[in-house]
Amino acid sequence: MKKILFLALCLLPWLAQAQNEVIDQFYEKYRQDERFSRVYISPKLMQMAGGFLSSNADQKDEDAANLMELITKVKGIRILSAEKIGGLALFNEAMGDLKTDMYEELMDVRDKESSLKFMVREEKGRIKELLMVSGSTSEFTFMSMQGDFTYQDLNMLSENTNLPGMEAYGRAKKSK
Question: pTM for this one?
């Protein structure tokens, strides 16, 4: 039993990397497709933005200081979105490619014309990725935000920023 547990712990980083490759492949598959809008914010840009904001902040504003600290926790964002497209088929494709056992489902909303899923990947009690996949008869959105968060951090980001994807997270959280 100890050998199996040890083996599982050794494979966990490899499985997380394999999952990142699946997300990378899906993003790359549609990144050059002209029907899609895409956003990529690199870890370096997030680091630079956090540093810039903290150096220019009013140190007396505690909320602003907390928000700047949160932004530095975002390691990168990738978004694909398209309008006037069969988004339900893309939703099913994305969900079929993902190893959903590595994610905890936060929300699953479905009706006959649309599907929306929010999932998180956690490691040692910290959120390492927030994933949103949304598809309807005419739209599709795929958002992956990587970082090192708590649920409180995600709630604050959704309420106080215009980071891509966080508006949908805030709406979904409120409709729960």
Answer: 0.76
